[in-house]
Design brief:
The chain starts with a helix and ends in a 5-residue tail after the last helix. It is 70% helix and 0% strand.
Length: 159
C-alpha cells in the first residue's frame, strides 16, 4: 500500500498534464477516468493504512521527485527526465509520450500486484485481495484501451 500510493500519485500527475497539451478528446477523457480511479484507490489505501496503524505517504509527496532507488522499487515509474519530457511536449508528441508512459506505468502496477499476490501470507485479508484484483482488472482494461488509442490515434497511417 505504501508503495502503490506514490505510484498512483504519479499517474495523477501525468493525467493532470493532459488538459493543456492535447486536443485528442479520447485521451482527455481517459486521463480524467485514470485520475478519478487513482484518487479513489489512494483514498481507500490511505484509510486502510490508517486503520491498521501504518503511516501513509504524505498527500503532497510527489512520486516523480523520488530518488532513483524508489524508481527501482516501483516498476513502471517515469523518471524525472521522462516526466519533464512529457510536460514539455504537446500535440501528437504529447499523446504518444503520455500513452506510452501510462502503459508502462500501468504495467508496473500489474507487476506490483503480482508481487503482492505471490508473497506468502500477503493479501490474505478479503479487502486487500479485493483492491489488488480491482487494480489489476482496471489497469489491464486501461492498457488495452491505450494500446488501441496509440495505434488508432497517434501512430501515423502507413503511406
Amino acid at each position: 500500500m505504501r508503495q502503490m500510493i506514490p505510484h498512483h500519485q504519479q499517474a495523477i500527475e501525468m493525467a493532470a498534464l493532459v488538459g493543456e497539451r492535447t486536443s485528442n478528446r479520447a485521451i482527455d477523457m481517459l486521463s480524467e477516468r485514470i485520475a478519478v480511479s487513482q484518487r479513489d484507490e489512494i483514498a481507500w489505501m490511505t484509510r486502510w493504512l490508517d486503520r491498521y496503524a501504518a503511516a501513509a505517504p504524505a498527500a503532497d509527496e510527489h512520486a516523480h521527485h523520488a530518488g532513483h532507488h524508489d524508481h527501482v522499487l516501483m516498476p513502471g515509474m517515469l523518471t524525472p527526465d521522462e516526466m519533464a519530457a512529457l510536460a514539455a511536449a504537446s500535440g501528437a508528441e504529447f499523446d504518444r509520450l503520455f500513452l506510452e508512459g501510462m502503459i508502462r506505468h500501468h504495467e508496473g502496477a500489474l507487476t506490483m500486484v503480482s508481487q503482492l499476490l505471490a508473497t506468502p501470507g500477503a493479501a490474505q485479508a478479503t479487502e486487500v485481495y479485493q483492491i489488488a484484483t480491482e487494480i489489476d482488472a482496471d489497469q489491464r482494461a486501461d492498457i488495452d484501451r491505450m494500446r488501441t488509442m496509440l495505434v488508432a490515434h497517434v501512430t501515423p497511417a502507413p503511406n
